Amino acid sequence: MRKGKLRLFILLFLTSGFTILFAVPEYSFSTEPQEIQTTYYNYMPGSYNGCPIRVQSNTHPGANGIYIGFHAMEAASATRRQHIAYWNPIAQSTQTFYIGNSDSREGYGGLFLDFDTQDPLCAWHIDLDADGVYEVAFNYDMYHMLSHPGLIGTPFMLMPNEDWAGTGFMPPFPDDEFIWPYVFVSRAPIGNPDSARVYVIARNSTSHCGEPSENVLIACADFATADLDNSTMDDLDWNYYTLPIMDAWNAGPDEIRPFHCAAVSRDGKLAIIGYLQGEAIDLAYPDMFVLWNENFGDGDWEYFSTNSEQWVENPLNLDNTPHFAADSLHFTFTHSGNFSAEFDSEGRLHVPSCFALHGVDGTGEDVLFPWNLYMRDVVFDPDSQTFEIGNLYPQGSGPANQVYLPWDEDADGVVDEFSDEGEVVSVLGWPIGCYSEENAFHENNFKICSNPDNNWLAVVWSDGLKSRLYTEWADVPEIYIAVSNDNGDTWCEPIALNSIDTPELDGMIPLYVYPGDRIEDMGDNVGRVHLFFLDSHWSYIPPPCASTLMYAAIDVEFPVVANDDNDIPAISGMLHQNHPNPFNPETTIGFSLPVSGQVELAVFNVRGRRVKTLVNGDMKPGDHTVTWQGSDDNGLPVASGVYFYCLQSGGSAETRKMLLLK
Description:
Layout: E1 2-3, E2 11-14, E3 17-20, E4 26-39, E5 53-55, E6 66-72, E7 81-88, E8 93-98, E9 106-113, E10 120-126, E11 135-140, H1 143-146, E12 156-159, E13 178-187, E14 195-204, E15 216-224, H2 225-229, E16 239-242, H3 244-251, E17 257-264, E18 270-277, E19 288-293, E20 302-306, E21 310-312, E22 328-333, E23 342-343, E24 349-360, E25 366-381, E26 386-393, H4 440-443, E27 446-451, E28 456-463, H5 465-469, E29 478-484, E30 495-497, E31 510-515, E32 520-521, E33 526-535, E34 547-557, E35 587-593, E36 597-605, E37 610-619, E38 622-628, E39 641-649, E40 652-660
Antiparallel strand pairs: 1-4, 2-3, 4-34, 5-6, 6-7, 7-8, 9-10, 10-11, 11-12, 13-14, 14-15, 15-16, 17-18, 18-19, 19-20, 21-22, 22-24, 23-24, 24-25, 25-26, 27-28, 28-29, 29-30, 31-33, 32-33, 33-34, 35-38, 36-37, 36-39, 39-40
């Protein structure tokens, strides 16, 4: 397997214990990018808040078919239609089908596989009568009848937004238009092992509070395999309901907009989770929320909320002036409208999100520092009914639930690095494929998948930091894939796939990346992550503009973490603290060797980049000293800041830090 780029892979021994910063895991393409179809619609081909790529589980790993739901325009003058594609890993080929039967504008579908038949159940919105109002249609592919795809059922209108007569349901307002549907399946609550419950959760595009406020409509029905055999899903006893608190937000008069996604567990736990924005939301209002139901959607829903703001101190430049132009600082949800959620093996719900650094100025106005956007893992634990915000990327060396500070990555309370002008140096972040700040609200896309049997999670997003920084990277958004083997308690440095460093993506501009819902266990701690993305021009270039929908898969070596304390290398006391410390520009490092052998002593900056190799060779036992004069391997002076020096000898490694102040 090809190893990804290393950012930092050393042990940092802190006063409170130790933290392991994992390297980029090894990976290889099991399926290089394959063309699904050309499209002239260049925005969010899957869905905003769902997973459009589903992995079958009816055979052994590596041989399971892959269903993908997407919308596409096949020509510049064509109608946008909803499709499903089927990737056959044995034949190494893709088949594509319309899921509807009329040439009407449609799209933004949801898709889920029935557990027993592996049939894909699909819902999408469609303007059948071309009056500008969408309805939600439902259909499925009867895979189980043929053991291959293509036997498409007859679609029916599940949510007829203009005519609810005969459904037994009336929406809160007559002009409500529930679209953008997502599909989930759980076991049915009636105790019949051959029955399941299907849920279609749609969001309201009509708001009554002045700004968008997408309350949800939930349609659910119980079914058995016989219903799929007979193509009678429209005859099921469909029940419809909305959630009162979200209806109230939508009704106004206060402006409250929820950004949210849905999740359903196999045993019938339902969640609507996200955060709130709007003029009615101030810093004292609990903006992070979950609506929770443990009974297959039946009965009451519980509401839990908390503040997402992470308040931090404004770091000081060397002249003691605040680095950021604000009276106070905090991190909070920003540009995070398009995320999904996933349950881990402990029943906790994970939502990958972007948190940005904000300030409050002297007038009380919010100030966004747009280059400081970082990935977080928002976790809701239904057992304790609490939220936790973990660092996903970057992480720093502090505990996962300690706020990551981009100017203090070693979490010791001291600024890591200063520029030659005495300014605080802060790690930049832009986890959005499109480098345009004006389009960041629409272009964010953070999706998560899992394998609960192995405690595996993977988060996939498009990263555009290099596109913002470097001209030669302007059209090179990266696919970032971060993985965890312990339910998100720790995360590896992400795999970065791009058209410059990844031959398989040569010439591509990958955007809107979606992972398969299930990470396949390929054995030997290798998980297969399936990917669906758009090889596109930048999405703010309007149609007609030809792009290509792509499928690929990579095999990732998930890290193995030693849980036995005996496996943790002990500190032997070989490495001594440098002196003087702080220093300018010269300092002495001492170390003691118990036996002779190969020794390496090197200096790293806080980004994990090797700055200077001080020793690399065989040495005799005893006490030794080395002088570092504050220069790199090219003889150039380094900037002020925190540096780490690492000694490796006899299979042991020790690290200490030092501070250069100019």
